[in-house]
Specification:
Length: 115
């Protein structure tokens, strides 16, 4: 019943029908998101858990926005040693970046003024 009344539970009823009748499964990413396309080259994603657009990795993002036509292959994907794995946007969560607080009495001057 959730699929009829809420859009935040994976997909809407309309997307379910579109996927069922016209969708062709093309792949899955590391997050478990499933990617589909139809004969008109419309592309869409069905998210694995909660709907968060930043869960799409850069390779699949390029494919989704018709920048590349070749499907991303995680087996032949080369990563440099300095590259990190893709993460969703963590703003508003307990894992979000929080800058270090500066104490009022701390000397911040890191340069000498001209005399």
């Amino acid at each position: 019943m959730k699929i009829f009344f809420t859009w935040w539970n994976k997909q809407t009823f309309g997307t379910f029908l579109k996927t069922l009748f016209t969708g062709k499964y093309v792949g899955k990413d590391n997050f478990g998101n499933k990617y589909y396309k139809n004969k008109n080259d419309q592309r869409w994603v069905i998210y694995a858990n909660n709907i968060e657009a930043t869960k799409i990795s850069s390779e699949w993002y390029l494919w989704m926005h018709h920048t590349i036509d070749k499907l991303p292959d995680t087996k032949e994907l080369k990563k440099y040693s300095w590259e990190k794995d893709h993460q969703e946007n963590l703003t508003g969560t307990s894992k979000s970046f929080k800058p270090v607080k500066i104490k009022k009495n701390e000397n911040l001057k890191k340069y000498e003024t001209w005399k």
